[in-house]
Amino acid sequence: MLRFIPVLIALIVKFTTAQAQGVVPDALLCAEKQNLENRLHFRVNPNIYHGYNIHYHKLNFRINPKRNGYLKGSVFSYFTLEKDADSIGFDMKFFLQTDSVLYRGSKIRFSRASDVLFVHKPGGWKAGTSDSITIFYQGNPALYGGTGYYVYDFHATGPSVHTLSQPYGAYYWWPCKQTLSDKIDSLDMVVSTHSDFRVAGNGLLILDQKMDDTTRIFHWKHRYPIATYLVATAITNYEEFNQYATFHNRTDSLLVQNYVFPQSKTDLMRDAAPILPMLRLFDSLFGEYPFVREKYGHAQFTWGGGMEHQTMSFMVNFSFDLMAHELAHMWFGDKVTCGSWRDLWLNEGFATYLTALSYRYLKPRTEYLRIMREIRDAVTGVDDGSIFPKDTTQVNRLFSGRLTYNKAAFVLHMLKVKVGDSAFYNACRKFLTGPRAYGFATTQDLQTLMEQESGQNLDTFFLRWYMGEGFPYLNINWVQKGSSMQVTVKQRPSHPSVPFFQVPVPILFQGNNRDTLITLMPNKLEQTFALSLPFAVDTAQFDPNVDVLAKTSLGGMNQDKTLKDWVVIKGNPVTTRYLELATLNLKIEKMEIFNINGQKCMETGADFLHIPGKNAIFDIGVLSVGTYVTKITGNNQQTTLTFVKL
Ligand SMILES: [Zn+2]
User: Fold this and answer.
1) Which of 249-253, 312-316, 602-606, 616-620 has the highest mean pLDDT?
2) Domains of the chain
3) Ligand 1 centre from 470 Cα, in Å?
4) How far is the CA of 186 from the centre of ligand 1 (A)?
5) Do residues 479 and 486 make contact, with C-beta atoms less than 8 angstroms apart?
6) How many CB atoms neighbour CB 523 within 10 A?
7) From CA 147, how far away is CA 130, in angstroms rounded?
8) pTM over 0.70
9) Measured by CB atoms within 10 angstroms of the end CB, which terminus of the chain is less buried, N or C?
10) pLDDT at 400
């Protein structure tokens, strides 16, 4: 779906060039939420009745932003009746005024019931009949589209109109069938506007004709199935620049058509460059660009985010992240659309993950790792939450950037690590073809394909990571002596819905200019692994490739190296009444203090207990100023240290 970046932040991002925005800013969701709230109201309306399978629409509008957002036009619909019916229904907001409905050249009766237009055919229709009607109507949706479905606005050099119907706002501006179950098989949109303006749309531009000094007509033709919410137009004093993407193993290039505000053209021509390698990347990883016979494109708009309108994303700017996200939706969201709101993560998780993959393949590795860490940190900031939305009426939850975007993206990454790259990409390509191509898909479809391609049963994986809440906290401890390395991994799931996360635990051990990456695979909450390492380890790092969704603490020691300095005095000379001893996670058994004449002044009693890892603190207030020697027993040895008390 869409990303919402408040305009203020978008401007800041624009002026700090190298600084990429987070993959999904928390702020993105207010507008989606608004849209969805309307959609939910809509959904509970019991009067909705369509009664047909939609095949084709021809939209014909007159919109002149020089005057206002007023729309006058017609919608031709071609459909097949699902059952016998006297009337069929079109979703259409109450404020749109129906002028007439034509059936084979004659006016027929229509009626309104709140936000539905019913069209009545004399004698009714028989099930299975294919037929067509044309609805003539007018109105100014901009006066009612407070949620942003149809916006009359101004940018620095002119007025504009744009639409954004996601998820269920199309009926604010045209009579349609709003569902997540029936795509429009084919579409034409003809818009007449002022001659100073261009009109953005879906598919191929087959006509751009100035009729006179005040009228210019654009005809967009789209011959791929399209979900109703992805039909869009935008009209302003656009300037155009085109790019051409080339692909591996194909000779035909693809037009990338950009409609931009005149004042932004120079900047956006520069910023648009990465869209070409992104197209080539996604095309090679996930199969041919889904609308290859037509085009891809961007149309700038005044709203503070991006929206993946089919074949022409609407964009606030051409940032790397936003371009990658919206382009990714051409495969995940547009070609294959989530079949229900519970499956929304398929659109947004993939779009977020493909943005990270763009970093991986098109930017330095450090940038990719940074993005993956940002995604992981965004998820693990809170202990609970599943990708699966238990209650789709909870709007904040459904469009949670943390869960539906970021957690979904990271879980897709872990799925790829689990099944392997080739099984993952094969399953994705199959997900995007076959019965789901240009249709709808569910979470179960994805799981089944991943299982088929990998030969693995993924029930537990999906149960833990899709249905279950949270992630594991991992406490990792290592001890090396000679070549023997012992690693203990303790896990505490962050939420009780998951008893145990079976995650790999990759640890990079480094020392003496050598390193090795060892991946442990614990199968219980606490497990100790005995390894053999041929070099002395100085440091260890958890998950250097950022493959595991977990929050970790990692500590350890090389006993050979730390034997000598296993205990030190903190703050010498001692200026307070306390002597503080720091140890390397080892236990002090006993401590004695002698003066310079060798007389014992203090010692720990039988009840002394030191907790390894914590500093041991002794009150030496009774000692006078001078030099002392402390003898410390522990770590199978005695260590003598000298200190001065001031
Ligand atoms: Zn999106």
Assistant:
1) 312-316
2) 50-145+185-227 (2.60.40.1730), 343-467 (1.10.390.10), 472-561 (2.60.40.1840), 565-645 (2.60.40.3080)
3) 23
4) 23
5) yes
6) 7
7) 35
8) yes
9) C
10) 87
Q: How far is the CA of 420 from the centre of ligand 1 (A)?
A: 25
Predicted pLDDT at 48 = 53
120: CA distance to ligand 1 center in Å?
39
Cα(350) to centroid of ligand 1, in Å? Answer: 9
At a CB cut-off of 8 Å and minimum separation 6, what does 599 contact?
Answer: none
Which residue is it, tokens 């990270």?
356
Ligand 1 center to 1 CA (angstroms): 4
Residue 195 has pLDDT above 70, yes or no: yes
Quick one: pLDDT at residue 342? 83
Structure tokens at 229: 């919410």
**CA 22 to ligand 1 center in whole angstroms:** 14
Q: Indicate if the pLDDT at residue 467 is higher than 80.
A: yes
Taking a C-beta distance cutoff of 8 angstroms, is the pair 506, 517 a contact? Answer: yes
More confident residue, 122 or 393: 122
353 CA → ligand 1 middle, Å: 11
Which tokens belong to 479? Answer: 């001890």
Q: What is the mean pLDDT of residues 399-405?
A: 91
**pLDDT, tens digit, for every residue of 27-72?**
333 334 444 444 443 443 434 578 899 999 999 999 999 999 999 9
**Secondary element (H or E) of residue 414:** helix 408-419
Phi, psi for residue 24 in degrees, rounded to 5: -135, 100
C-alpha 630 – ligand 1 centre gap (Å): 65
Distance of CA 322 from the midpoint of ligand 1 (Å): 9
- Residue 272 CA to ligand 1 centre (angstroms): 19
- Rounded CA separation 389/583 (Å): 48
- Going from the Cα of 200 to the center of ligand 1, the distance in angstroms, rounded, reads 20
Cβ neighbours of residue 642 closer than 8 Å, sequence gap 6 or more = 627, 628, 629, 630
